[in-house]
Specification:
alpha/beta; Rossmann fold; UDP-galactose 4-epimerase, domain 1; seven-stranded parallel β-sheet; three-stranded mixed β-sheet; 10 helices; 14 strands; 40% helix; 19% strand; binds uridine-5'-diphosphate-4-deoxy-4-fluoro-alpha-D-galactose
Length: 329
């Protein structure tokens, strides 16, 4: 019996593959390598290069590998891109997820764990932390495309023998502490990735998008979660479902945030590089503060994060960025 990881050649998916192999699980990956890399998939896992929207490919993998659990990471993840290409996002994230869920139902796969996002909430109504019961008002096709998949899973699970977890990620960052994988995506836009690239002179400077927000230092606040703690939450969710636990929708964050300038300071301190930081206009669509209420995941899965420390997140991200330079990627 195997575990299927869609998008296993990508950033979070490749960390999940390593976590599953470390636990002695058999792993099969489906990835079409549009943004991921075949070298990111450890040789102990089976890699099938294919599309999760293709029922023949998925059906064959589910049967041939006797898949009992699916982690679904494959999808498009850039919020502004989803605004200019909404139909592309609904295709990749919603239509293809529907095909994948149907193939799983047809094959009788019992457990499905879905990579969702804090973007399903839109701009939080208060500056407090956001709990899972907050109103769902996605403000981009990206957020809507993920919420539609959550809804399909909920309804499919009430009609068929399928149990699921939807994990809503806040700002995922860092890399495998053992240096086996990390964020390798080309043209990444995420803050910690961009700042580590500036620290290593892969960019001439970085920009801070808006320093006039109503926060203590004027920059936006986010809840940065180490990717290793995130995949641990996924593994606990799998164990929860395997032992008969209820379906689960849960936030994945630490419950406290850091401003953009705090992140920049930590990257400068850890790297020892005083790279150029330019103050720029606000970026369209940025909410002031997005921080998780993480009570549910801590309580329902007994999740105890090990890397709730911005310095560790940055240290691991920087180490991976250096490794990528040696790889010439
Ligand atoms: N930022 C900069 N300069 C940069 C990059 C980012 O100042 O070069 C700022 C942004 O303006 C924002 C903060 O850093 O205030 C974080 O931005 P990211 O792009 O790293 O992440 P987002 O918070 O915009 O997006 C994240 C996830 C999305 C998810 C969203 C949910 O990456 O997938 O949270 O709110 F949808």
């Amino acid at each position: 019996m195997s575990v299927l990881v869609t998008g296993g050649a990508g950033y979070i998916g490749s960390h999940m593959v390593w976590r599953l192999l470390d636990a002695g699980e058999k792993v099969v990956v489906i990835d079409r390598l549009s943004t991921g890399f075949d070298w990111a998939v450890p040789s102990e896992a089976n890699l099938v290069v294919g599309d999760i929207g293709d029922p023949d490919t998925v059906g064959a993998v589910l049967r041939e590998h006797a898949v009992q659990s699916v982690f679904h990471f494959a999808g498009s993840i850039v919020v502004p891109e989803s605004v200019t290409d909404p139909l592309g996002y609904y295709l990749n994230n919603t239509v293809k997820s529907r095909a994948l869920i149907e193939a799983c139902v047809d094959a009788g796969v019992p457990h499905f764990i879905f990579s969702s996002t804090a973007a399903v909430y839109g701009t939080p109504e208060t500056a407090e932390t956001v709990s899972e019961d907050a109103a769902l008002h996605p403000e981009s096709p990206y957020g809507t495309s993920k919420l539609m998949t959550e809804t399909m899973l909920r309804d499919a699970a009430s009609a068929h023998p399928l149990t699921y977890a939807c994990l809503r990620y806040f700002n995922v960052a860092g890399a495998d502490p053992a240096g086996r994988t990390g964020q390798s995506t080309r043209d990444a836009t995420h803050l910690i990735k961009v700042a580590t690239q500036a620290a290593l002179s892969k960019r001439p400077f970085m920009q801070v998008f808006g320093a006039d927000y109503p926060t203590p230092d004027g920059t936006c606040i986010r809840d940065y979660i180490h990717v290793t703690d995130l995949v641990e939450a996924h593994y606990l969710a799998l164990q929860h479902l395997r032992s008969g636990g209820d379906n689960l929708v849960a936030n994945c964050g630490y419950g406290h945030g850091h401003s953009v300038l705090e992140v920049v300071d930590v990257v400068k301190r850890v790297s020892g590089s005083d790279f150029e930081v330019r103050m720029a206009d606000r970026r369209a669509g940025d909410a002031v503060t997005i921080v998780a209420n993480a009570d549910r995941i801590r309580e329902s899965l007994a999740w105890t994060p090990r890397y709730d420390d911005l310095e560790k997140i940055v240290t691991h991200a920087l180490k991976w960025e250096e490794a990528l330079s040696r790889r010439n990627t």
